Automatic annotation (TrEMBL):
InterPro entries, A to Z: CMP-NeuNAc_synthase, Cytidylyl_trans, HAD-like_sf, HAD_sf, Nucleotide-diphossugar_trans
Organism expressing this protein natively: Equus caballus (Horse)
Quaternary structure note: Homotetramer; the active enzyme is formed by a dimer of dimers.
GO molecular function: N-acylneuraminate cytidylyltransferase activity
Name of the protein in question: N-acylneuraminate cytidylyltransferase
Signal peptide: none
Keyword Metal-binding: no
Reactions it catalyzes: an N-acylneuraminate + CTP = a CMP-N-acyl-beta-neuraminate + diphosphate
One GO biological process term: N-acetylneuraminate metabolic process
EC primary class: transferase
Amino acid sequence: SVWVSTDHDEIENVAKQFGAQVHRRSSETSKDSSTSLDAIIEFLNFHNEVDIVGNIQATSPCLHPTDLQKVAEMIREEGYDSVFSVVRRHQFRWSEIQKGVREVTEPLNLNPAKRPRRQDWDGELYENGSFYFAKRHLIEMGYLQGGKMAYYEMRAEHSVDIDVDIDWPIAEQRVLRYGYFGKEKLKEIKLLVCNIDGCLTNGHIYVSGDQKEIISYDIKDAIGISLLKKSGIEVRLISERACSKQTLSSLKLDCKMEVNVPDKLAVVDEWRKEMGLCWKEVAYL
């Protein structure tokens, strides 16, 4: 069975839309200091029937089902207690020198006098955090890795970890080229819904002398929306804030919009049904 662990209403709704079951996290496992292991142990406390847990990280969007199936086989058929994902990298490592310390750096995994060519070196395996599979008894002892342990080497193009801002554009391009989109042929996008706060602004809110909020809109996004509309894609705008429709109309986008929306998913679903579309024909930014 597939479960999504969250304390967020919108994430719960989306998970259920795609057929997943939801474990509602407690306040204790939803803190900034909470770990994945904390959430998994809490989940197991409610599900005595579960013997094996595969923890998939949402920050690794290029996972393919075949990888997960092979890992499940390693545990069920080969008797491993835990399996985790790694990726092979060809990077030379050097010792770090603290600022102000008069030392020289030293090589950690190479001989500078005999630097190998990349094709002559097998490289090294690095844990990439995409997934951790472990048996129940191991998790209850406080471990995701242990017992009879093995790694599963992922293909480099599928190894994506979103951690800092620069990882987002890299992940977006990697997903488009190497992501898994199901066995069905991809449907053409017919409706694009843009979150006004994330798509049309520069991410800054200015405050005037009389304490009024002033938001700056980016004309480049408006041009992009215009090009999409010319290609036949319906573009609609949405925001949970009480944006000024009059101000937005000055951008001449000619798009249907809804502002001050508490439940964006419900509105997007209504638009989808209105246009007679399936979810695979809808994109959200």
